[in-house]
Write a structure and sequence with these properties.
This is Transmembrane p24 trafficking protein 5. It is a single chain. By secondary structure, this protein is α+β, with helices and mostly antiparallel strands. The chain has two domains: about 100 residues, GOLD domain (Jelly Rolls, Sandwich); about 40 residues. The chain contains three helices and nine strands; from the N terminus they run βαββββββββαα. A five-stranded mixed beta sheet has the order 1-3-8-5-6, with no helix packed on it. A four-stranded antiparallel beta sheet has the order 2-9-4-7, with no helix packed on it. A hairpin with a 5-residue loop joins strand 5 and strand 6.
C-alpha cells in the first residue's frame, strides 16, 4: 500500500493508426469512463491519481460493497493539494468537479477499522476531455466491414455455459471417483486378505 496508482486514459488501437488520420478531430467529445473494484485491508489507506486537462469534468462515484459497517473515509484533492471533498464513514458518494490541469488524488481510507477489510467499487467518468477523448474514439471510423468485431452477449454466453457445464460434470465425476476409491480402501481395511 502507499504506492501511487495512476489511472491512465484508455488507449484503443491508436498506435496502429497514422497521425494524419487522427488530426482534425472536432465536434462532440464522448465521455470516458472506467470502473474498479478492490479490497482495502483494515487499517489501510489507498490513493489513486487521475491526470486531467483544463476545464474537463471529473466525476467519481464510489460504494462500499462489503465489510463491517459498509463505510469508508473518502478524500478528493486538487493538483495543488487542496481538499475538494472529505467524507467520513460513508457507504457511497458521487462527486463532480470542473478540473484544472494536473493530477487529482482521491483516497479511500480504512485506517479507522482495526478488524474489517472493505470491498470498494468506484467509477470515474471523464467528460470534455478535448482532443484526447475524441482521438480515442476516432479509430472506429477507419474500420469497416469485417474488420469491425460485432459480438453479442449471446455469442459469448453459449461457450461459457458449455464450459461451466463441462466443469460441473468433471467435478461430479471426480467426486464420484474419489468416493469409489475411499469405499475400496474402507473395504480393504475391514476385510484383510
Amino acid at each position: 500500500m502507499g504506492d501511487k496508482t495512476w489511472l491512465p486514459f484508455p488507449v484503443l488501437l491508436l498506435a496502429a493508426l497514422p497521425p494524419v488520420l487522427l488530426s482534425g478531430a472536432a465536434g462532440f467529445t464522448p465521455s470516458l469512463d472506467s470502473d474498479f473494484t478492490f479490497t482495502l485491508p483494515a487499517g489501510q489507506k489507498e490513493c489513486f491519481y487521475q491526470p486531467m486537462p483544463l476545464k474537463a469534468s471529473l466525476e467519481i462515484e464510489y460504494q462500499v460493497l462489503d465489510g463491517a459497517g459498509l463505510d469508508i473515509d473518502f478524500h478528493l484533492a486538487s493538483p495543488e493539494g487542496k481538499t475538494l471533498v472529505f467524507e467520513q464513514r460513508k457507504s457511497d458518494g458521487v462527486h463532480t468537479v470542473e478540473t484544472e490541469v494536473g493530477d487529482y488524488m482521491f483516497c479511500f481510507d480504512n485506517t479507522f477499522s482495526t478488524i474489517s477489510e472493505k470491498v470498494i467499487f468506484f467509477e470515474l467518468i471523464l467528460d470534455n476531455m478535448g482532443e484526447q477523448a475524441q482521438e480515442q474514439e476516432d479509430w472506429k471510423k477507419y474500420i469497416t466491414g469485417t474488420d469491425m468485431l460485432d459480438m453479442k452477449l449471446e455469442d459469448i454466453l453459449d461457450p461459457i455455459i458449455k464450459i461451466a457445464s463441462d466443469v460441473q460434470l468433471r467435478l461430479h465425476l471426480g467426486i464420484h471417483q474419489q468416493h469409489q476409491v475411499q469405499t475400496k480402501q474402507k473395504w480393504a481395511h475391514t476385510n484383510p486378505a
